[in-house]
Amino acid sequence: MTRYPTRIIFFTLLLLYTCGKEANDISRSPIEIPKNNIIAKIGDKIITVDEFIKRSEYTVRPAYCRGDNIIHKKIILNSLIGEKLLSLEAMDISLSPHLMKYLKGRKEQAMREL
Questions:
Q1: 44-85: per-residue pLDDT in tens?
Q2: Domain count, the chain
Q3: Which domain holds residue 102?
Q4: How far apart are the first and last CA of the chain?
Q5: From the centroid of its chain, how far is CA 34?
Q6: Residue 54, by phi and psi: left (phi above 0), alpha (psi -120 to 50) or beta?
Q7: pTM for this one?
Q8: Partner of 90 for a Cys bridge, out of 1, 16, 26, 78, CB 3.0 to 4.6 A?
Q9: CB contact at 8 A, 76 and 56
């Protein structure tokens, strides 16, 4: 039973890492994206029409936003914006020296317990 929280943390961190490495990052993208295809900009990340369509059509959505009205589309867009904000925050946290010291201390403590 104690393995499930560590798995959840691991997969959450993996998700955040992959969100930080997306190809539609403006600063690293060699492809110029037309302005009419951009729905939202969050920091140096963007949300395109294609990304929105993929999210709304090809992923399983909860029962409260399976429709095609404007409220359901806003829910999908807000979840995309939330993911981008979370990936930006994860990049800031991963660069934090305080976090690195904390992780190093936890690693050393775990090695002592072995």
A1: 888 999 999 988 888 888 888 888 889 998 998 999 999 899
A2: 1
A3: 3-113
A4: 21
A5: 23
A6: alpha
A7: 0.55
A8: 16
A9: yes
